[in-house]
């Protein structure tokens, strides 16, 4: 399949879109943005200049991904979620003058492979969301999220683990072992980190 860009989308000629990607109505993809293969950018979504998306990412309707965010393969960004880029936002400088691009330094959000950012969640840069983690809808992430973690609330807090299928894991009778109720895959918890059993 060829890349599909609907007429009402605003895609910079300086952006790079991988094959089989789609950009839908009223979405904007800025100059220097790089999208991998098979990405979907939903209605009204914004991809900032220099943002990088891996293959098969989904950025849902009205989500805002500000530069210099980096999304690995298979990342899901839910409707109206925001990945910010200014830790100390101000419209003006202390002297009252309007801030320009030279008056602040953008910082980004990094999202690992297969992770999901829920609807209306906010990731306050600079933070890293680990591989296969899930940020619940409406959560506000202010610190790094471990791989496979499930975080909820404002500010987001770690309440459990999720597998690659996205479902919450269940603890087995073996200490430190967790099981996916959907796939049966087993995971091992050790000192606040979770890895699939058999991974090194």
UniProtKB/TrEMBL annotation:
InterPro entries (UniProt xref): Hexapep, Trans_hexapeptide_repeat, Trimer_LpxA-like_sf
Keyword Nucleotide-binding in record: no
Single GO term (MF): transferase activity
UniProt entry keywords in alphabetical sequence: Transferase
Protein name per Swiss-Prot or TrEMBL: N-acetyltransferase
Organism: Ornithinimicrobium avium
